[in-house]
Amino acid sequence: MHLWNPPHCGEIDIVIRRDGTWMHEGSPIGRKELVRLFSTVLRKDPDGFHLVTPVEKMRITVEDAPFHAVRVDRAGGALVFVTDVGDEVRAGPENPIRVETDPATGEPAPYVHVRRGLEARIDRPVFYELVEMAQERDGPSGPVLGVESDGAWFALGEAGAHRA
Fold it and tell me: Residue 138 CB: number of other CB atoms within 10 A?
């Protein structure tokens, strides 16, 4: 699919909301099979997100990340995430974990790369699991919590920021 280069055919009124709900013309798409099918032809290009087939390319709106990581499991030396559309992603050098922090609230926004520039927002309970697994390391500004997966280490935030 990443090699397909059909002409841009316009926009389709599909929105992937911040909470992971796929909407069409203002209504949720209720069939999980249809959402899964759409997710397999979703592509991120420099000009936005598109559903792409061999013959057409339609722009859609994505409010945050197109997928949500709803589960994480430890498999040997790797963290394996499962997304809301059924993808399994092994975090590591090819699929990094990143955490953005809202400067106003300090709230973390964690993500894992899924494929070809598409990311999954790591759901809060899954992020809490990562924090429980985290180890502390010295960083340039002090102690940092992070997790290791497939030989790569990913910072989750300052050590004191995620403790209750």
Answer: 9
